[in-house]
Amino acid sequence: MFDSLDISASALLAQRTRMDTIAGNIANMNTTRNTRGEPGPYRRRFAVFATGRPDAPDKAGVSISKIAIDQSPFRKEYQPNHPDHDKDGYVSYPNIDLAVEYVNALEASRAYEANVTAMEVSKAMMNASLRLLA
Amino acid sequence: MLIEGLMNRGNGALLEQVVNFAAQRHKLLLDNIANVDTPNYRQKDLSVARFSSMMRQRIEERRRNGVASFDDISSEVENPVQGILFHDGNNRSMEQLATDLAKNAMMHNLAIELLRKQFQQMDMALKEKVV
Amino acid sequence: MINGVNNFANVGRVGDVAGKNAQSPGETGGASFSDTLRKSIDEVSKLQEDASRAVEDAMTGKTDNVSGVMTAVEKSDLAFKTLLAIRSKLMEAYEEIKSIQI
User: Fold this and answer.
1) Who's near B92: CB < 8 A, 6+ residues apart?
2) What is the ipTM of this complex?
3) Are the Cβ atoms of B35 and A7 closer than 8 angstroms?
């Protein structure tokens, strides 16, 4: 019975990790340089879900198996005065669409809420079982 | 033999089976809710209809023969086809999951309350005192 | 337990002997009293059966009426408690009468 809380907790962790990646994407929407300062746009990251808890893969639950990098093409804008433009005057911006990120964030937050509610239900059931002794 | 007979009077065994079934099903439903965003995940469930019909059979048996065993009711996990198949291969239905979770929890709590009442009554009879 | 009720019929008869002039409703004392008690036991038994059936129906999903089930269970519980209280009172009375020193 106490295992039920672990199942929901794994989901909470996974959804929060997903929110972190989404937040990172939104924050880096216009980043045209990489961590070393060289020109290289930020690539969109997304979380890949998999069944099974990280420490016990055959038990019920969910975990993030990896944070994958989106390989879709960059967004190009014609800005000849920008220091990072290429030979044709185009600057490559990250392949991040705010609308898509927003919808994903909403979904993650709803899934988080759903799992919190599921946890409350689990706790209520456990309390009822404990009252048998009272 | 005598003590066992006293313990098996009433609906104790039936209620116990319902509680176990509800607890088992609860874990599966939690797993489904946790995996709403997992691609290619198949929903898992226990068949309530089959469980109910097996219980009814045992109850009929008990009515005819006086005793029936409720112990060997086992339920297998199955993959129901519910809701539409999304593009990521998952056939979730958030509304269905939430409803199922709530109903299952209520059945569980109801069975526990009735079980408690049963034990209380037996306790009263043994103590010969109105608790 | 049902046979034990007949023992209490004698309580009524003792009262008869002791209070010959009393025109109490318990004058034809023993028989009707044990009958009443037996009827109550039957009633309690029936209520418990009803409750049991209601619980079975609710658990197998045959009925949706949870409040009905709870009411039936509570009724049978109260009836049982009443019977238990009556029995305790009768035992007390019996002990008291037993300890009367002639």
Assistant:
1) B32, B35, B36, B41, B43, B83, B86
2) 0.84
3) no
